[in-house]
């Protein structure tokens, strides 16, 4: 009987953890993104990606590892999906299947040319792209990352 109760407890705990770990994808506009970028002195790593972009998908584990390793140093990773709005369910399934723990936003701005220069005048619009901001300092990268190069850049923000 004790083994059954322990098993039941562990099953409930794992179900509860799964529910907590899977955050809903919030649909935002560019103005919402601007507010996130200028939020506070915490270091935010905004990764612009799409589920169909192979380099984007390949680098996501590096960002997840960064978020896990630097969370005590006030570093937050935020994924900004640039998928088409009609593909929101695909993005939600991708996030669930790949157990993405970082916050994921879906930007609902079909005219990318109206806002990409506001992220960085150097951004051609290609992805993956990453903006790192701490409220007063911003750095933009239009490239793929591995964990080592990403963590080296983050260390310069401290």
Major sheet summary line: 6 strands, mixed
CATH-wise, what's the superfamily?
Glutaredoxin
Tell me the span between the first and last alpha carbons.
53 Å
Report the average pLDDT across residues. Answer: 86
Quickly give the CATH architecture.
3-Layer(aba) Sandwich
Identify low-pLDDT runs. Answer: 4-21
Spatial strand sequence of the major β-sheet? 1-4-3-2-5-6
Number of helix segments?
A: 6
Question: So what's the CATH class?
Answer: Alpha Beta
Strand content: 15-25%
Number of domain units? 1
Here the CATH topology equals: Glutaredoxin
* Alpha-beta content class: alpha/beta
- What is the tally of beta strands? 6
- The gross shape turns out to be globular
Q: How big is the Rg?
A: 17 Å
Roughly how much helix do the residues carry, as a percent range? 40-55%
String of helices and strands: HEHEHEHEHEEH
What does the model show?
A six-stranded mixed β-sheet has the order 1-4-3-2-5-6. It is 43% helix and 20% strand. It has one domain: Glutaredoxin (3-Layer(aba) Sandwich), CATH 3.40.30. It has helices at residues 2-21, 30-37, 54-70, 88-97, 116-119, 147-155, and strands at residues 26-28, 43-49, 75-81, 103-107, 129-133, 138-141. The longest helix has 20 residues, at 2-21.
